[in-house]
Each structure stands twice: as C-alpha cells, then as structure tokens.
Design the sequence.
C-alpha cells in the first residue's frame, strides 16, 4: 500500500467522511482525512508528499473550500481538486473553478460517480505526465488523446505547454489551472470562430443550468494577462460584444 496513490479528503460530515475513507481504501488508495478547513490547508501546504488528488468540501469549519483552493494555487500547489459541494447553483460551481478546482460534484452523490470522477482526474494527470515525457525526448510534440491542439503551442513569442500546464515567455513562467488550460485549448481548437459564452459553459464546464454567463469573463481576463502584450488591447483573445469570444493566432487575419 505504500506505493498506492495518496488521496487527501477534506470533509467535516463525519458519517460521509468515514464512508469515503473506507471505500477509497477499498479501491486501493491511501487516504489522509482532515475535518477542519484551516488544519487541512496547513497540512496541504506543508506536507512532504503531495497527494495525487484532493477531495474538497466547500462548507467547512475554519477555512472554506474556495479559500483552500485559492491559497493552494497561489502557493504553486497544483494538486488536482475535485470539489464536493451542496451548493448546486451554477455561480457556485464557476466560483470553484475560478478558485482553481478541476472538477466538481454536487451533494448528495452516488459513490460510483465520485469514484468515476476521481479516476478520470487521475487518468488525465497521467496523460499530461506521459505527454510531458514524450515532448522531452521527441523532436516534434505529440498529439494528445482526442485533441486537435498540440501539447506545445507557439504564440507570439510565448510557448504554451498544455502537457505541463505552463506558459513560457522569455524567462517568465506562468502556471495554468486545468480549467484555464481547458478553456484556452477549446478556444484554440476553434481558432477564428466566434465561441458563445453559453457554449463555453456547457462544453468546457458542463454547466447546463441558466446562469450569468459573464462569470466566464474573469477567466478571459486572466488568459489575456498571460497571452497578450497589452491585456487592455487584446490582439488574440477578442471579445465579440453580446455573444462571446474569438481567438485569432494571426492578428493580421482579422476581417
């Protein structure tokens, strides 16, 4: 069991936490459980062994799940986060993504669904690691599974490394969250086409309920800071007023 993936669980509902710990261990994982948000954040930032994934409740005593995710990302900790929330409003889901969560699951949930989401998150991480290893040994970047955008993408003096979740510009390196990378990849795969906000909600974040689609704007602002020389006057990531966004790799091609 010492080589089994370590799963961190932050959940204050005792009966739910006990059930999750039991079933995760039955699946072959090691589990570290914290019921208090403040203690959990301290452990996550100081532990010598980074967990393979974090199952994170939103409503916690002490520090809440949103603040934990935000603090981890700010500290450069990019452990994949599956957020567990009884708040099923789309705005709360998007808030979790904006804080750095990689996926979400509404309470109450079926155990089989949680395990499927967790397995998917871990599989996705393995794909990224494998792609990174291949890029380091191959002359040409490989194509990721079922994707049209290469793992290494050059744009206006910047190198976007989807395999490493990084953007390199000279000696500056910017770390992407999985959700930021997913949005950027989605826009790049549809280069030149107008992508409505509603499409992003449904296809990238799988949020199908009515919500304020302007919540996406915060993600766009961050991507512009990463990609544009002058984020206030974007040349690549363009707003189509009242509709959505359009990505243009060659600004001269705008018509």
Sequence:
């Amino acid at each position: 069991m010492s080589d089994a993936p370590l799963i961190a669980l932050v959940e204050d509902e005792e009966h739910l936490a006990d059930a999750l710990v039991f079933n995760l261990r039955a699946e072959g994982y090691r589990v570290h459980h914290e019921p208090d948000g403040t203690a959990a954040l301290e452990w996550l930032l100081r532990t010598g062994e980074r967990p393979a994934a974090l199952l994170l409740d939103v409503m916690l005593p002490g520090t809440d799940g949103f603040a934990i995710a935000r603090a981890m990302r700010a500290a450069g900790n990019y452990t994949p986060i599956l957020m567990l929330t009884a708040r099923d409003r789309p705005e709360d889901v998007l808030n979790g993504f904006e804080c750095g969560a990689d996926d979400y699951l509404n309470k109450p949930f079926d155990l089989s669904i949680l395990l499927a989401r967790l397995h998917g998150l871990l599989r996705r991480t393995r794909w990224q690691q494998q792609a990174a290893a291949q890029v380091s040994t191959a002359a040409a970047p490989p194509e990721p599974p079922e994707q049209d955008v290469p793992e290494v993408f050059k744009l206006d003096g910047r190198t976007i490394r989807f395999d490493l979740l990084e953007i390199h510009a000279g000696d500056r390196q910017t770390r992407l969250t999985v959700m930021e990378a997913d949005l950027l990849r989605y826009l790049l795969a549809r280069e030149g086409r107008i992508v409505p906000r509603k499409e992003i909600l449904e296809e990238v974040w799988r949020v199908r309920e009515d919500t304020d689609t302007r919540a996406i704007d915060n993600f766009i602002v961050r991507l512009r800071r990463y990609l544009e020389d002058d984020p206030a006057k974007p040349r690549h990531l363009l707003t189509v007023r009242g509709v959505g966004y359009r990505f243009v790799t060659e600004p001269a091609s705008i018509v």
